[in-house]
From TrEMBL:
The protein, known as: Protein kinase domain-containing protein
PROSITE patterns: PROTEIN_KINASE_ATP, PROTEIN_KINASE_DOM, PROTEIN_KINASE_ST
Lineage, highest ranks first: Eukaryota, Sar, Alveolata, Ciliophora, Intramacronucleata
Pfam family, one: Pkinase
PANTHER family referenced in this protein's UniProt entry, alphabetically: OVARIAN-SPECIFIC SERINE/THREONINE-PROTEIN KINASE LOK-RELATED (PTHR44167), PROTEIN KINASE DOMAIN-CONTAINING PROTEIN (PTHR44167:SF18)
Family recorded in the similarity comment: Belongs to the protein kinase superfamily.
Molecular-function GO term, any one: protein serine/threonine kinase activity
GO cellular component terms listed in the entry, alphabetical order: cytoplasm; nucleus
Length: 490
């Protein structure tokens, strides 16, 4: 068995001290009096009960480590550099004691019924981390071992995960009253707050695609190692850097499980994000799969695309019921969303887990390779050209104008075959044919073209050249938006 770290240390006795040779392996630490590691005296397995203690000198440098042996702590001395490396190689493998030796904390980032998350600063550097503190009293209140087993499984899963889109586990500590899980400190807000505080009515399309791609890539990684998160939601996705959507990381593995053939369904997760099969199951014959995380990611995708909550209600019970029934009206977005994004959204929110897409199928979807359409800019161009202002103007006409004009407004909503011909003509007549040919109109814009045809037939002063001028006035902003996307991809 190959050692990943070796060092020597001294076990001090009253009459005579002994030198020990230490090796760190993937699953255990060995100490022997012989350099060839024969007849090891101490073998420390990396199990839940294992705890390594530390001592520091007057100048706050490491001077010794201790292991529990026969209900006593055996101390071994060495130099600071060797001990610091030992601590690094043992990090996240076993519990450490004495967290206050290494970190200062004076700020609580969040708090719940059973735990709180503190901002901690490393005493030997300027680095900051997040420490989740779980009360031992809470874990032991329940007569069963469910709570302690969940914590154990959460730590085991964090130990196994090695992916840039997940929070990274650095160290675990056990004190007299609490367990501590030390992870990345993510400086940005949750994805929920990012969407809520975004100044525009809609997030840029390239940001939406990048965000959902990161989430799906992360879920595909979990799929490859047979882990189900079970609580994917906006609040469990944080930005590592403020306002940088490319720095998304998924947190909180408190409900995560390994996928097993006999892992029966039980109601867990956050109302509004739960896959409907979990709420409808009789819990006897159905089992958890990674498809439940895909549905939750679909709820997030819906929010990114529309800035609306999918299942809205006055209270939790009503949300749960809507979540269970999963009756989603996609028709209201048929002319508002790009067809590729709507297609992917439907595949992710499919109520049937058997036909719902997997993470890999989602990543293979044409949405991630198509040209993104800037609907807002084109809508503004054609609104000015036609005198209409989108659906708001249409609704106003339906309420106030004559029946004939109402039919005209209804015609605007539907795109007839001449729309495509109009787009081709615009490409031919524009002053910048090369740039314009690379940009494709979206269907709502074609529909506004119909309104132009109707108006012009009734003696309107608009003509094709007016639209050309408007398009060229706005074309620079369209191209600039596309250049942003290209830079973003690099």
């Amino acid at each position: 068995m190959q050692a990943i770290y070796q060092m020597s240390c001294i076990r001090k006795h009253i009459l005579k001290s002994k030198t020990y040779y230490l090796e760190v392996h993937d699953n255990q630490m060995i100490l022997s009096e012989h350099k060839n590691m024969q007849n090891a005296k101490y073998v420390v397995q990396y199990i839940w009960e294992t705890r390594v203690m530390w001592k520091t000198s007057e100048n706050e440098e490491l001077c010794a480590f201790g292991i529990y042996y026969n209900n006593r702590i055996k101390w071994f001395d060495s130099d600071h550099n060797s001990l610091n490396l030992l601590k690094i190689y043992l990090s996240a493998r076993v519990f450490f004691g004495n967290i206050s030796i290494f970190y200062d904390s004076n700020q609580i980032l969040g708090q719940g019924a059973s735990s709180k998350v503190c901002l901690v600063k490393c005493k030997k550097s300027i680095s900051h981390y997040a420490a989740k503190c779980i009360s031992k009293k809470y874990l032991l209140q329940n007569k069963s071992d469910d709570r302690i087993n969940r914590l154990r499984q959460e730590i085991q899963i964090l130990q196994r995960i090695d992916h840039p889109s997940f929070v990274k586990l650095y160290e675990i500590y056990q004190g007299e009253n609490s367990y501590y899980i030390v992870t990345d400190y993510l400086e940005g807000h949750t994805l929920y707050n990012y969407i809520k505080n975004y100044p525009e009515d809609q997030l840029p399309q390239y940001q939406i695609r990048e965000a959902i791609k990161i989430i799906l890539t992360a879920l595909n990684y979990l799929d490859s190692i047979n882990i189900i998160h079970r609580d994917i939601k906006l609040e469990n996705i944080l930005l590592q850097k403020p306002n940088d959507i490319t720095s998304l990381k998924i947190i909180d593995f408190g409900l995560a499980i390994y996928q097993q053939p006999l892992q029966k369904l039980c109601v867990c997760g956050t109302p509004g994000y739960i896959a409907p099969e979990i709420l409808k199951s009789n819990h006897d014959t159905d089992y958890f799969t990674q498809k439940c995380d895909i549905f939750s990611a679909g709820v997030i995708f819906y929010k990114l695309l529309t800035k609306k909550t999918l299942f809205r209600a006055e209270n939790t019970l009503e949300i749960m019921e809507k979540n269970k029934q999963c009756q989603i009206n996609f028709q209201e977005f048929e002319f508002k969303l790009q067809k590729e994004s709507l297609s992917l959204l439907k595949a992710m929110l499919n109520p049937n887990p058997k036909t719902r897409y997997s993470a890999q199928q989602c990543l293979d979807h044409p949405y991630f390779n198509c040209k993104l359409e800037n609907i807002n800019i084109l809508q503004e161009i054609l609104d000015k050209a036609t005198g209409f202002s989108g659906i708001t103007q249409i609704n106003y006409q339906k309420d106030t104008l004559s029946i004939g004009q109402e039919c005209q407004a209804a015609q605007i909503k539907r795109c007839n075959p001449t729309s495509y011909k109009i787009r081709i003509e615009q490409r031919k007549q524009t002053k910048s044919p090369r740039k314009y040919a690379d940009f494709q109109f979206y269907y709502p814009s074609f529909c506004q073209m119909n309104s132009f045809e109707s108006l012009s037939s009734k003696g309107s002063s608009y003509n094709i050249s007016n639209i050309d001028n408007l398009i060229n006035d706005k074309l620079d902003s369209v191209i600039e938006e596309e250049e942003k996307q290209q830079i973003y991809k690099k």
